[in-house]
Amino acid sequence: MDYSRLYLVKQTFPDRRVADIPGTVQRELSSAGFAQRLRPGSSVAIGVGSRGILNIATIVKAVAAYWKSAGMHPFIFPAMGSHGAATAEGQADVLAHYGIHEATMGCPVISSLDVVSLGKTGTGIEAFMDQNAFNSDGVMLIGRVKWHTDFAGKIESGLFKMMAIGLGKFAGAQRYHTHAYKLGLENVIRQVGRQVLKSGKILGGIAILEDANHNTGQITAVPVEGMEQREEELLALVKSWQGHVPASLDILIIDQIGKNISGAGMDTKVVNRNPNGLFNCWPDTPQFERIYLRGITDVSYGNGVGLGMADMVHDNLLRQIDWVPTRINALTASTCAAIRTPAHFPTDRQCLEALMPTVGKFNMRDVTIGRIRNTMELNDVVLSENLLPVINSNPALEIVEGPFALEFDESGDLPDWLGSAVPAGALTH
Question: What value does the mean pLDDT take over residues 396-416?
Answer without folding.
Answer: 93
